[in-house]
UniProtKB/TrEMBL annotation:
Compositional bias (Basic and acidic residues): 1-16
Residue intervals of the Hypervirulence associated protein TUDOR domain: 9-67
Protein name in UniProt: Hypervirulence associated protein TUDOR domain-containing protein
Region (Disordered): 1-70
Membrane spanning stretches: none
Cited InterPro entries: Hva1_TUDOR (IPR021331)
Organism: Brevundimonas subvibrioides
Residue spans of biased composition, Basic residues class: 25-41
Lineage: Bacteria, Pseudomonadati, Pseudomonadota, Alphaproteobacteria, Caulobacterales
Highest rank taxon of the organism: Bacteria
Amino acid sequence: MTDKTFKAGDTVKWDHSQGTTTGKVVRKLTRPTTTKSHKVAASRDNPEYLVESGKTGARAAHKPSELKKA
């Protein structure tokens, strides 16, 4: 389990192919789910976070290691 934890409403940033994006954590995912036809293999021991881009409003799941507090 990772020591990087976030809560809903936290402002975070992450890198992607076009640079860095800032957004907010929507919720912590602790079980397998699907987001925009993408399978998210989250679990209690391996959580992911649903984040919403502040620029586009798009939502995506990210591993805690990909996120940094902004």
